[in-house]
Amino acid sequence: MGIIAGQGDPTASMTLLWGRAEAKANGRPARKAPGPKPGLSVDVIVEAAIAVADEAASAAGLSMRTVGERLGCSSMALYTYVPGKAELLDLMYDRVHAEIATDRTVDGDWRAAVTGWAAELRAFCLRHPWVLQVSYARPVLGPHEQAVLEALLRALSGAGLRAETLRAVVSSLFHFVHGSARTTAEARRAAAVTGVPDRDWWNTRVTLLNELAPDFADRFPLSTRLASSQAAPVDEEDPADAWERETDGVFSAGLAVLLDGIEATAAGSGR
Fold first, then answer.
1. What is the pTM of this model?
2. Measured between alpha carbons, how far is 13 from 77 in angstroms, rounded to an integer?
3. Measured in Å, how far apart are the chain's first and last C-alpha atoms?
4. I want to staple 97 with a disulfide (CB 3.0 to 4.6 A). Which of 5, 74, 127, 144 is the partner?
5. DSSP letter at 61?
6. Which 3 state secondary structure label does DSSP give 47?
7. What angle do CA 77, 78, 84 make, to 5 degrees?
8. One-character DSSP codes across 135-155
């Protein structure tokens, strides 16, 4: 299950997200710590928290304490600026989305614009895999997150989709991009955590499968055909690089199929 965003004080989170340097929690100023550390600010704290999550490739270990340690101060000093971890997570999530270009020129080619948007969003998620742990069942509703959605809607504007179809298309594109990035991020983490490269893991199990189920290809012919379609790595190529190249190709091919469907749907709607 993902981390649910927006669990902090709504007034505090929304005030901080939309440009106020100091928020109030439950109608009162955020807690003050005696002698605030010089140089601290909301921006500094958010950037430090992002760095903590990036290094761990996870938001699981994020806390006011770990952020304070990175900044050389106590967690209490942070409460002068941010009411708590829940509000901090909202700020982090929105802040990193500022990296995504949202001013792409559509120039009448909506497919190219959506392809560029999807590729950039996927690359962003792989740079910050912890964002994939934050559920978008409840959006943060910050300006940068909203700008990413607006950029997609602008790219799709030339497709001529009806409003009810557009909502489904937007949801499908976000699910597809996030799902692709999540699979890649988890595969990278699996190799790092276990110390076993993907090629070795698969070779061991395929060898055992051939021994234990010699009729596997007869029983599952379509699965076998699917597996055989995977491109073989180039000789002397790093297996990890080969796998990354393969996943990039799968992403591009899958996106093209999805865009074909969007195009066919738009044509069938009588635009």
1. 0.86
2. 18
3. 40
4. 144
5. T
6. helix
7. 135
8. ESSS----HHHHHHHHHHHHH
Cα-Cα-Cα-Cα dihedral sign, residues 72, 76, 77, 78: positive
**Which three-class secondary structure state does DSSP give residue 268?**
helix
CB of 128 closer than 8 Å to CB of 55: no
Which structure tokens are listed for 271? Answer: 């635009």
Q: How far is residue 168's CA from residue 171's CA, in Å, rounded to a whole number?
A: 5
∠ CA 68-32-51, rounded to 5° = 25
Sign of CA dihedral 126, 179, 138, 86: negative
Q: In angstroms, what CA-CA distances link 224 with 207, 247, 251?
A: 14, 19, 21
Tens of each residue's pLDDT in the chain, 271 residues? 689 999 999 999 999 999 854 444 333 444 444 455 558 999 999 999 999 999 999 998 899 999 999 999 999 999 999 999 999 999 999 999 999 999 877 788 999 999 999 999 999 999 999 999 998 888 999 999 999 999 999 999 999 999 999 999 999 999 999 999 999 999 888 988 999 988 899 899 999 999 999 999 999 999 999 988 776 555 555 666 777 788 899 999 999 999 999 999 998 865 4
Query: Which sequence spans correspond to the domains of the chain?
Result: 111-130+167-268
The one-letter amino acid at 78: L
Query: Residue 23 — φ and ψ, nearest 5°?
Result: -105, 165
CA–CA gap between residue 234 and residue 236 (Å, rounded): 6
3-state SS, residue 123: helix
Residue 267: count of CB within 10 angstroms of its CB = 11
